[in-house]
Amino acid sequence: LFLCGSPIKTKDFNWEITLNFSRIRNKVLESNDEKGLTNVDRFRVGFPAGVFYGPKYARSADGQILINDNGLPFTSSELGVVGDPNPDWLGGMANTLRYKQLSLSFFFDVKRGGDVQNDFESLALFYGTTKATENRSPIVAAGINETTGLPNTKEVTAQAYYQAVSGIYEYTVEDGSYIKLRNVSLSYSLSPEWFKKAPFKS
Q1: Which of 63, 65, 151, 200 is deepest in the core (most CB within 10 A)?
Q2: What does the pLDDT profile of the chain (202 residues) look like in tens digits?
Q3: Residues 6+ apart with CB under 8 A from 142
Q4: E strands in 84-176
C-alpha cells in the first residue's frame, strides 16, 4: 500500500508526506523429500518460511515452564519451532517540509513483530557478560516443579540459572520490532538570481 499527499500547501510553505505499508503471509506446504529432506534447515512443513527451530523449554500440557528438582528450567526432549522472523507488517513514513528555499526531509521505518535469534546473548549468558547477568542475586525461576506440579520456590544462584537457560534456544529469541529514523536532511536552494554574473551555471 502506497499513499502520498500534501496536507498543507501555501505560497511559502509546503508539507509533503508519503506512507507505505506491506504485509506478507506464507506457509511451507510441502518439500522435496526424495533424499529425506522433508524439513530442511529452517523450512518446516506447516510453518512460515525461515522459522527458528531448535531446543525449547520443557513445558507442561498447559504450556507452563517445567523446573527440575534442582530449581532450574531445562530443555524439552524434542526440538521445536521457537520463533518466526517474518514480521506482522512493515511500514514507512517520509516527510518533506519546505519553507521558501529551505527544505527539511526525514524518513521513519517501522517493523512490527518478527523474531530475532541472538546467538551472542546465549554465549554472554553462559559467561556472565550480558547486561541481564549484572544482578547476581539468587533467582527463583518462573515455572512449576516437574515432580509436584506446584509453583517453583527453590532458589538457585544467578550463575546456575543463566548457564542453564543459555542452552535453551527459545530463551534467546527476541522481538525484532523497531521504529527507526532512517535519515534526515536539511537543504537550502540558492536563488539563480545570485549567480547571474557568476562564471558558472547550474
Answers
A1: 65
A2: 999 999 989 999 999 999 999 999 999 888 776 555 555 567 888 899 889 988 999 999 999 999 999 999 999 999 889 999 999 999 999 999 999 989 999 999 999 999 998 888 888 999 999 888 988 899 999 999 999 999 999 999 999 999 999 989 999 999 999 999 999 999 998 777 776 776 666 5
A3: 65, 152
A4: 89-99, 102-112, 115-117, 144-145, 173-175
Cell matching residue 174: 527476541
Give the three cell numbers for residue 149. Answer: 506440579
Count of Cβ atoms closer than 10 Å to residue 50 Cβ: 18
Residue 125 identity: L
Cα–Cα distances in Å, from 36 out to 40, 87, 137?
Answer: 9, 30, 48
Residues 111-154: tens digit of each pLDDT: 999 999 888 888 899 999 988 898 889 999 999 999 999 999 99
Helices and strands (DSSP H and E) totals, the chain? 2, 11
Q: What is the DSSP letter of 196?
A: T
The residue with cell 557478560 is: 129
Report the alpha-carbon distance of residue 165 to residue 156 in Å, rounded. 13
Residue pair 112/143 in contact by the 8 Å Cβ criterion = no
The single residue listed with the C-alpha cell 520463533 is 83
First-to-last CA distance in the chain? 37
Q: Cell for 60? A: 507442561
Quick one: which of 181, 177, 5 has its CA closest to 96?
5
